[in-house]
Amino acid sequence: MNEATDEMPARQALHALLSRYSIGPKHLVAPGPSEAELALMVEAALRAPDHGELMPFRFKRVAGNARARMAELFAAAARAAGKDEAGAALDAERALRPPVTVAVVARIDMGHRQVPAHEQWACVGGALSNFLMAAHLLGYGGKMLSGAKVRDPGITAAFCAPGETLLGWIALGTPTRQASGPSRKGGVAAALQDWTGT
Ligand SMILES: Cc1cc2nc3c(=O)[nH]c(=O)nc-3n(C[C@H](O)[C@H](O)[C@H](O)COP(=O)(O)O)c2cc1C
């Protein structure tokens, strides 16, 4: 754990929450989160609102030899998309750069009688957000990444069972810099309005 936050008072926790920004692989170095810390992130993800307790997501840690296998898949997808060898090597490097990578897979039950697909997707988003927030609170940087390769048949077959959707990969590691963060999209005023009933 980079910065112990076990007994963080509520205000401090909220302050930490409000300082989360994504940090990309260029600015992430070892160590990445341990297995125990990853388990905490997944526990946080499991606290996302989940209508019907469907758990419409799975996380898949890419560790050890699997990183090289993922690099091969990224390179093959790049070639299939028409990139040259330099482009394929660059994409392969993307698989190897983050100290820890976790794939995010959605399993949406399109025919569910009570919980429509959009509610299940909302849960997936909540899970992703909670996961990243837990990483941040533990002192790690992270960023959700996708790209056209999430739709590459070789990659989807490798990560997904039939009917599942590959959302992308969370890159995780120790941040080498403080994220300044993007604009907060107009802030609270843009995001919160009174509904007046008319
Ligand atoms: C499902 C999903 C896929 C994403 N894919 C990419 C991506 O491929 N490349 C990228 O630069 N940002 C991607 N993003 C956006 C970043 O993860 C990040 O949210 C964005 O840069 C804004 O930063 P913030 O999280 O600090 O607001 C994706 C976000 C989501 C939710």
TrEMBL record:
Organism domain of life: Bacteria
CDD domains: YdjA-like (cd02135)
Domain Nitroreductase: 19-173
Cofactor(s) this protein cannot do without: FMN
Enzyme Commission no: 1.-.-.-
Enzyme class: oxidoreductase
InterPro entries: NAD(P)H_nitroreductase, Nitroreductase, Nitroreductase-like, YdjA-like
Pfam families referenced in this protein's UniProt entry, alphabetically: Nitroreductase (PF00881)
Keywords for this protein: Flavoprotein, FMN, NAD, NADP, Oxidoreductase
Keyword Transport among record annotations: no
Family designation: Belongs to the nitroreductase family.
Protein name per its UniProtKB record: Putative NAD(P)H nitroreductase
